[in-house]
Amino acid sequence: MSAARRGERRATLSLRAWIVLAASVGLIALSGAAVSAAVPDAESSDGVDTHRETASREEVLEFWTPERVKQAKPAEMPVQSVECVGWQWFVRPHCW
């Protein structure tokens, strides 16, 4: 007796479903490779340098006199383009 006559369902996919599945898996793999290639290495010197200050609170207050505070200039901060907000960075290579 066949599976259809016994009331059992066979798990089969049509050719179209297999093509969609293969294309989806391929796109996911390709996008993962693109993102991993775009992420900078942690060991590279192109990133942001960080360090901890070991000065005490008193030393910091002694250094930052009112005159120095008035003459201080803010550091330039990187600006992210509006185009690269949300998931747009993923589809726009210049956002990487």
Structural features:
mainly alpha, 4 helices
Q: How would you name the oligomeric state of the polypeptide chains in this document?
A: single chain
Q: Helix content range of the residues, please?
A: 40-55%
**Overall mean confidence score, pLDDT:** 77
> Could you state the order of secondary-structure elements as H and E?
HHHH
Q: How large is the count of helical segments?
A: 4
Total strand segments: 0
Nearest-angstrom radius of gyration?
28 Å
Which residues form runs of ≥5 with pLDDT under 50?
none
Q: What is the beta-strand fraction?
A: under 5%
Main structural class: mainly alpha
Query: How far from one another are the termini?
Result: 59 Å
Shape: elongated
Largest sheet: none
Could you explain the architecture of this structure?
It is elongated and about 90 Å long. The chain has helices at residues 15-38, 57-63, 66-71, 88-91. By secondary structure, the chain is mostly helical. The protein contains four helices and no strands.
Provide a short characterization of the protein structure.
The protein is an all-alpha fold and 96 residues long. The protein starts with 14 loop residues before the first helix and ends in a 5-residue tail after the last helix.
Secondary structure blueprint with pairings:
Layout: H1 15-38, H2 57-63, H3 66-71, H4 88-91
